[in-house]
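Example (one chain per record):
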Amino acid sequence: MESDLRQRLNEGCKVLGVVKGVVKDRTLGMNIKRVLHKKVIVPTGMYGSELWGMKVTKTQKLNGLEMKCLGNMAGESRLDRVINKVVRVRTGVRNELAARLCMDVLRWFGDVEIMEKGCLLKKMCSLTGGMKDENVDQRL
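Predicted structure:
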C-alpha cells in the first residue's frame, strides 16, 4: 500500500507539473483553476484511494500535494509562509484531500453493503459484522 500511495503522489506531481503554467496564470479566473484542480489533479492523485489504509504520515503527504497545487493556484509559494487556511480561503477549496478520502472510503463501503448477497466482493469484505444477511437486506 505504501508503494501505491507513493506512485499516486508521483503521478499527481507529474500532472501538477504539466498544468502548472495554466494554474499559475493570473489572467485565468479562480473558477477555471478550481475546476482543473477538482477534475484533473485530485482524481489523478486519489485513484484507487478507497483501499488505502491511511495513517497520519500518509494524510500529511496527501495534504502536502494538495497544498502545493492550491498554493500555485493562489499565486503563493512556500517561501511566502502563508498558512494553509488562508490559501484555502483564497482558492475556495474547503475540505482537505484526506477528509475527502475518508468520505470516498465510506461511500465505497456503502456501495459494497448494498451489493447482492452472492457478490464475491461482498463476501470478501464481510461487512455484516456477525449479522445475518437477511437482516442487512431488511434494512435496505
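Caption: The chain has one domain: 2-100.
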